[in-house]
Amino acid sequence: MTDPVKEPSKLGKTQRQHLIAKLIGSQVVANQLALVDLLATEGVIATQATVSRDLEDMGAIKVRMPGSESAYAIPALPKEQRAPEDHLRRVFGDWVVEVAHSDNLVIIRTPPGSAHVVASALDRSGLIGVLGTVAGDDTILIVVASDVGGESIATQLSDLAGL
Amino acid sequence: MTDPVKEPSKLGKTQRQHLIAKLIGSQVVANQLALVDLLATEGVIATQATVSRDLEDMGAIKVRMPGSESAYAIPALPKEQRAPEDHLRRVFGDWVVEVAHSDNLVIIRTPPGSAHVVASALDRSGLIGVLGTVAGDDTILIVVASDVGGESIATQLSDLAGL
DNA sequence: CGAATGCTTGCATAGTAATGCAACGAGCCC
DNA sequence: GGGCTCGTTGCATTACTATGCAAGCATTCG
Q: Residue limits of the Arginine repressor DNA-binding domain (chains A, B) (predicted)?
C-alpha cells in the first residue's frame, strides 16, 4: 500500500506493551479492566484478553496488599534488543560483581546503574528455572523456581560471569 | 475443656500459613486449588477461600511465567514477633547500611545475613505505600506503590536509619 | 452459667483472568 | 495475482480468585 495513514488508536503490540509498562509504573493498577480503561484514555483500544496476554509476555507479577487493592508490577524491563549468547557472557563477565543465593532467590550485584542491563540480558537468556527478575540500581533479584533451586541458578550465573 | 484431643487435620491459622509458605517455597504451586490439594496431602484440610485469604495475609505475589505455568511466591517472611516503633528504629539504625531507590523500587543494604531481620521489621511497620518486600542475604528489595513513589519511601527509611 | 463479642471458616457467588477458536492482515513463495 | 504461513486480536467461554454472609468456636463479660 502507498497509503500509510496514521490510525490514532492503532499501535503495534510492542508499543502497547511499553505503554502498559509505563502506566503500571506510574500508578496503581488494580486489575486488567482498569488497564483497558487506562489504555483507552491514552487512545489505545484493546480488550482484556489482549491485556492478559501482554502481561504474560511482559512477565508481570500481581502483588496483593494485605488490606488494600491488588496491583500489577513489571519485574524486568521489556527490551527488544537481541543478545546472542556471546553477548550474554560478555555482559556477565563485564558487569557481574557478585552472585549470592539464599533459598529460592539469587542476588546479583553489578556496578551502580548497570543492573538493568544485566537483568535485561538475563531475561532474554531464557534460563530454565528463572521465574522473574527485578532490577534495582546495582542489584538484581531473581526469583527461582523451587524445583530448580537458587543454588543451581547461582552456579550457572557465576560460571557465566567467570567468577 | 479438659480434653485436648489432637485432631490430625486441624491446625491453627498461623501454622497453616507457615505450611503454605513452606510448600510454596519448595515447589511450583500454579494455583490455589493445587495448594488445597497439597495441604490435604499434609493432612491439613482447607478450602480455596481460606487459601485465598491466607495468601492475602501473607502478602503473596503471583508470578506469571511467559511460556509456562504461573506460580505463587511469598515476598517476606511471616513472623509473629511484635516490634514496637522504637525497636524498628533501632533495627534500622543498627543494620541499615544504605538506602537506594529507582523508579518504584527501594533497595536496602544491610550487613551480610541481616536482611531478613530488617525486612521482617519493615513488614510489621505497616508503612503506607509498601506493596511488598523481598529479602536476600544482605539486600532487601521493596516494591513501592507508584502513587507514593520510591523516593518518598526511601526518604522515610533513610530517616529511620539515621542516614 | 448464659449472653455478647470477636475471630476464623466454608459455602455460594461475584469478580477477575486465561484461553480455544475464528478472523483478519502482513509478508512470502509459487 | 493467488494461495500459504505466521503472528495478532476479539469474542465467547472457561478457569481461577475474591468476598458477602452465616455458622461455629473460643473468650470475655455480666
A: 12-76
CB pairs under 8 A between A and B: 104
Q: How many CA atoms lie within 13 A of A46 on its CB side?
A: 27
Residue A59 placed within a domain: yes
B46 touches strand D (CB under 7 A): no
What would the pLDDT profile of A54-82 be if each residue is shown by its tens digit?
998 887 888 886 666 788 877 654 333 33
Is B120 within a domain?
A: yes
- Is A69 in the same domain as A89? no
Distances (CA, A) of B25 to B22, B55, B74, B90: 5, 13, 8, 30
Q: Quote the cell numbers at residue B100.
A: 537506594
Which CATH number is A99's domain given?
Answer: 3.30.1360.40
- Is A143 near chain B, with CB under 8 Å? yes
One domain, residues A50 and A118: no
Helices (H), chain B: 13-26, 32-41, 48-57, 85-95, 115-125, 150-161
B107-126 pLDDT per residue, tens: 787 776 667 678 777 766 66
Q: Taking the CA atoms of B132, B134, B138 and B144 in sequence, report the sign of the dihedral they define.
A: negative
Bridge-partner residues for B140, per DSSP?
Answer: B108, B135
* Model-level ipTM above the cut of 0.85: no
- In a shared domain, residues A101 and A130: yes
d(CA B133, CA B78): 11
- Domain range enclosing B54: 13-73
Contact assessment for residue A117 and residue A91, using Cβ atoms and an 8 Å cutoff = yes
Q: How many domains does chain B divide into? A: 2
Helix (H) or strand (E) holding A61: strand A61-63
At B145 the pLDDT is: 65
From the list A131, A47, B7, A6, the residue with the least C-alpha distance to A16 is A47
Residue A119 forms part of a structural domain: yes
Q: Which of A4-13, A22-31, A75-84 comes out lowest in average pLDDT?
A: A75-84
- pTM attached to this predicted model: 0.56
Residue A135 lies in a domain: yes
